[in-house]
Amino acid sequence: MPAPTLISDAQLTGVRDARLRRERRRRIALSVLALVAIVLMGAMLMLGNTIYSPAEVIGVILGQDVPGASFTVGTLRIPRALSALLAGIAFGVAGSTFQTMLRNPLASPDVIGITSGASAAAILSLIVLGWGGGATVTLSLVAGIATAVVIYVAARGGESTGGRLILIGIGVGAMLDAVVAYLLVRADVYDVAVAARWMAGSLNGTRMEQIPPLVIAVVVLVPLVVALGRDLRALELGDASATSLGVRVDRTRVLLVIAAVALACFATATTGPIAFVAFLAGPIAARIVGPGSSVIIPAALTGACLVLAADLLGQFAFDTKFPVGVITGILGAPYLIYLLIRTSRRGGSS
Amino acid sequence: MTTALRAPRRASTPTVGARRRVIVLVIGVGAVLASVLLSLAFGSRPVSAAEVVEGITTWVRGETPTDIGALAVQSRVPRTVLALLAGAALALSGALMQAITRNPLADPGILGVNTGAALAVVVGIAFLGITSMWSYLGLALAGAFVTALFVYFVGSVGPGGTTPIKLALAGAATTAALSSLVSAILLPRQSVMDEFRFWQVGNVGRAAWETMAVVAPVLIVGAVVAILCASALNALALGDDLAVGLGVRVGRIRIIAAITGVALCAAVTAVAGPIGFVGLMVPHVVRLLCGADQRWLLPLSALGGAVLLVLADTVGRVIGSPGEVEAGIITAFLGAPVLIVIARRTRMRAL
User: Fold this and answer.
1) Omega prior to B322 cis, within 30 of 0
2) How far is residue A187's CA from residue A189's CA, in Å, rounded to a whole number?
3) All domains of chain B, ordered by start, with CATH?
4) Engineered SS bond to B218: which of A17, A324, B169, B267, CB 3.0-4.6 Å?
5) Contacts of A139 (CB under 8 A, 6+ apart)
6) Whose CA is closest to A229, among A199, A252, A213, A211?
């Protein structure tokens, strides 16, 4: 007589089938998201005051000299599309990392004040110090990380750090927003228009030299977050469970916080705080790929699709050209409210 | 809910005697007078004591002084009065909201009420072409009410009612959503934006008697209603069932207190722009000093709020000299650390 087993063969097959189904769904979802992102990129390169054919666009990308298109596509549209793609990826990864780590879908860096730190520094650098480019990126990176450290330190100690961290983040964010408002009142009218547009999150006037820092950030930090993703999923179970699974909780958390904050700050410094992308990418991606798998890469692609689609809408859907952040803000708001209510119903953020 | 009440636990013990409250009341009144004097005496132009006296006496007699120092003192009178009114109203509003939500973080700034008022005002400037103080006030009130109701609704669904964290997140998220609408309206309109950025920073520096005259009735009626609600709010703190047993109409008192709280802060926002954290900080400090009895808490909070905002405005003028740092910025800087302390003291539900 064979030894009695706890799981029958039929059950095992069932589990295996379910896992295969999940993996298939994930693969299909990732391919569709990537395809959508590529199509949107293509649309951004082709559309505008002059519409260029795919052949002309590809020609420009390959470095050929296409009359007219070389300037419009090469100098104006490629940086814009690239920054949309990269910022979307960065915001998506940063947001979903925070949400997973703090186990709260509402705890993205834009809600808990970290992007406010980066914004305040960037505004300071733009309108008071008159810096631009690399200096602005560096300063807002430093400020964003400093903000995260302050929030983290202030929230330490005692039980349930997560909830306290969110509250403290909101408070620190309010203080930093006061700094931004103060700087805006001091600025002269011309700077205010520039700063306000930046504050709303805009891809207008993105230049090619702004792209490399963002590329480096995405290329270095996204793989780091993905590599830590396994530990991140253990963290989602709670600190005690994660420790018992062999995760070095503190080290993992610090690395993840630094990587996520740096991604959010690089993106914020380049494009301004594009509202809600960090916030929405994770939950939307989780719905697309379904439960039970890591959300980081789907969130990166979702973030990119969101920014690209919103920028296309902002450029072409209305009489006035709206910056991308305004579109994501208005489209994101209803979803955000829905999410708030749903999370509360489940008692998730109580 | 009980967690929310635990914040002032040390102070809510009944050992706080009447004597201590009277002492605090006397100190409070003294502090109001002292802060008014400081506000008149300090600013971007330093003046002598004699000039302060001359400025005040001539102002009382309705004359214009010849001395430039005394003139400077006189020019500081309207903003001092506005700071007194606004500070008292904001602190009362915060105390009321904390009492009815039984939530230590209820504050007009955190609940997004200010942004709601701001959006309504921006819509008014951009689309309706409003200019009169009355329409500013009406729009700010409407925007504030809708936002407060909405945030409270979103923050209270689900098990456990309104917890501090749900309420704060609902407020922060709503603020973010409304701010995008504000930028969508402002960005294509350079001139509106130029007007709005000054309004956006809470500030008593643009005080004028005409605008104050419009909101003063709202503030006075609000303050009176708030004080009248005090003992019913005390009963409410015991829990709804006990309050009903004590003969309090729970639903009605909640609605009245909520309307009063929102009206007070919306009226202030209409004249002074969004000033955050006064409503958060002051009632907490007063509760630490004098316990949670609303009959004392509400009036003492009003005094404390007045002192805080007058001092914030004065400090802003001194450190920002020859310009000024707006009072709303000073209060944000004072308030964020207080929020951190409250967040650390309050035992949060497990997340």
Assistant:
1) yes
2) 7
3) 2-41+77-345 (1.10.3470.10), 42-75 (no CATH)
4) B267
5) A121, A122, A124, A125, A131, A269
6) A252
Extract the residue ranges of chain B whose pLDDT is less than 50: 1-14, 348-351
Q: Is the pLDDT of residue A349 over 60?
A: no
Buried b or exposed e, range B236-266, using 16+ CB within 10 angstroms: bbeeeeebeeeebebeebbebbbebbbbbbb
pLDDT confidence tier of residue A162, bands split at 50, 70 and 90: low
Q: Chain A, 198-227: which have a CB under 8 Å from a chain B CB?
A: 199-200
CB pairs under 8 A between A and B: 186
DSSP letter string over A186-230? HS-HHHHHHHHHHHH---TT--GGGHHHHHHHHHHHHHHHHHTHH
Give the Cα separation of B350 and A306 in Å (integer).
33
Distance from CA of A178 to the nearest CA of B (A): 5
- To which H or E segment does residue B62 belong? none
Query: Measuring CA to CA, which residue among A280, A286, A289, A285 is closest to residue A333?
Result: A280
Topology classification of domain A22-345: ABC transporter involved in vitamin B12 uptake, BtuC (1.10.3470)
Which residue from A103, A106, A154 is facing B169, i.e. has the nearest CB?
A106
Binary contact (B197, A332; C-beta < 8 A): no
How far is it, in rounded angstroms, from Cα A106 to Cα A342?
Answer: 11
